[in-house]
Write a structure and sequence with these properties.
The protein is α/β, with parallel strands linked by helices. It has ten helices and eleven strands. Strands 3, 4, 5, 6, 7, 8, 9, 10 and 11 form a nine-stranded mixed sheet that branches. α1 crosses α2 (21-28), α1 packs across α4 (62-87) and α5 crosses α10 (276-289).
Length: 294
């Protein structure tokens, strides 16, 4: 037991939290066979069965549940060691794990990161496009670009500004279907909205506009796919004004209505904030995102 390998505990935690080898492999960046082998090795080393194998995933056994909190404590200790060591680095070189929403990762970050690479070739970037919350405290990412303010006390955050929103349609669609002159004219057009996310519906209702899920002809919770649907001419949809400046095949339908904005926050762990490579990427993001913000 004194030779228990941390990588085995890490594999156990990933599978326990995600409930399947495939999802756990995506989370930790390992292959599915490797994780399966590590879990079996841990079970052999402990002499206990930790998971029930089921057709759609793995469930913790009673033995596995009893190990979960000690394993999490071990994880927290390892992260603390990593953070302390990283905070002592003095050179602006090495890897930085960066997470942002899919839309920001696809459309906004690439030119920012290209300039960073030109200026700082010693820094490599791991981009994690995700609309879910990545845990900065557990080093799943070093820096996060978020559309809300992270609240954990251990984090350093900075509000960069806001992404204004607008309504867009492709120029080809407007030529074919006609141009809405008022906001209420939108209801005569196919609209692109969310599937399970009700943010658009609530926002419209709060502004006294009739809105329901059924009013959307196309529904998708991915902002990136929604923007592609707009550009393809499927109808009229919401998007960040910054996207309209990047694509000349769409038109900003600038109605005089009060649309919400998306706040943009940078966040990192306080132990990493002054690490040279983190500081360089942090400032590059703040500078590079500024032109897109209000």
């Amino acid at each position: 037991m004194s030779d228990l390998d941390w990588s085995l505990i890490r594999a156990f935690l990933a599978v326990a939290e995600k409930g399947s080898l495939s999802a756990a492999a995506r989370m930790v960046g390992a292959s599915q066979p490797t994780l399966g082998r590590q879990v079996r090795q841990l079970e052999e080393q402990l002499g206990q069965v930790l998971f029930h194998r089921k057709p759609k995933g793995l469930d913790l056994t009673e033995s596995g549940r009893s190990l979960l909190e000690p394993a999490r404590a071990m994880h927290r200790a390892m992260v603390e060691i990593e953070l302390t060591a990283a905070g002592q680095q003095t050179q602006a070189t090495g890897a930085v794990r960066l997470t942002a929403s899919e839309t920001v990762s696809v459309y906004i970050l690439p030119p920012v990161l290209a300039r960073l690479r030109d200026e700082r070739p010693g820094i490599s970037i791991d981009v994690m496009p995700s609309d879910s919350t990545e845990n900065l405290l557990f080093r799943e990412a070093d820096i996060a670009v978020r559309m809300y303010r992270p609240e954990q006390l251990e984090l350093v955050v900075r509000h960069l500004g806001d992404f204004p929103l607008s309504l867009f349609a492709s120029r080809a669609y407007l030529q074919q279907a006609g141009r809405p002159r008022t906001f209420m004219d939108l209801y005569d057009h196919p609209l692109i909205g969310y599937d399970r996310n009700e943010e658009i519906i609530r926002g419209m209702q709060e502004r006294g506009m009739p809105a329901s899920r059924e009013m959307f002809a196309f529904r998708c919770d991915s902002h990136t796919v929604g923007w592609v649907l707009v550009r393809a001419g499927c109808g009229i949809g919401f998007g960040m004004k910054a996207l309209g400046t990047l694509h000349d095949d769409v038109e900003d339908l600038d109605f005089d209505i009060d649309l919400p904005s998306l706040p943009v926050w940078l966040a990192t762990h306080q132990a990493l904030r002054n690490t040279p490579r983190i500081a360089v990427v942090w400032e590059a993001l703040a500078k590079g995102l500024k032109p897109y913000l209000s």
